Write the structure tokens for this entry.
Amino acid sequence: MDPDAFALTPGGADAYVIGQNGSSVAEIATATGDVVSTIDPGYEELNAIAVSPDGTRVYAASASDSGVAVIDTATDAVTAEIPLPSITNGAPSLAVSPDGSTVYVMGDNGSGANGGVGSVSVIDTATDTVTATIQVSSTTQLAVSPDGTRLYALGRDGVITVISTATDAVTGSFTVSTTATATAVSLSPDGSTAYVALVSYGTTTGDYTQSLAVVDTATGAVTRTITVGTGTSDISGPLNELAITPDGSRLYLATTAPGLPADVTVIDPATQAVSTIAVGGDPSDVATAG
């Protein structure tokens, strides 16, 4: 299997992995690497996946079928398929609230110059129904604050939209960058800091600079920017995925693009030290186990 995206169960004993063809989800025992089961979710082109905080459910979003499959981890059976009629052009990200009561699905509804017009669908996990739809300007990734009170919707245009989870209303926004493309976001364990992966393109096609913006979530101010590296790929730029350790001491950045080294970048947010781990293959996602 050539994985496209995955999510870990609490404790990291199992990984639920979307295959590159996007039409199946595999449960893999992380201790052995063995495939425990392969699940047909009923949707094609899956591209985002998450596990509930209690580990009992997996949610997998489809880019083409505009829906979310719900999988019972005890049986690996699909228990619900939730249609998302407001999403017309893919679902690049989903996130689960800390108490497991709500799933948020980012939807791309257009093809704007840097990401398109987007929305966030709010799903009540008790009923597996959509209870609200929130409009955002552009789409890349979602992150829920550790206390569950705020949802951050990152757009490729570098804007983070802040949403109150109590009212499902937009309460504000802040701009991380006006010149770079934002590709991923991760929050510190206390929610006070957002780390945003950025890609800036050079004058020559394929030349790029990767950086990490450190954002104060209380003010929206970028407090510093860490340069991660530069390179050249034979596409317009790399795709990044970002994960943080439970204690907030390390960030891991997976970068995939043709012609790039098969590395995961390790960033120490305190010292701004940057190192790499050669992992082989084409790393398209990264996660840390709590």
User: Anything to note?
Assistant: The chain has a mean pLDDT of 87. Residues 195 and 240 are 12 Å apart (CA to CA). The two ends are 25 Å apart (CA to CA). DSSP finds no helices and 24 strands in the chain.
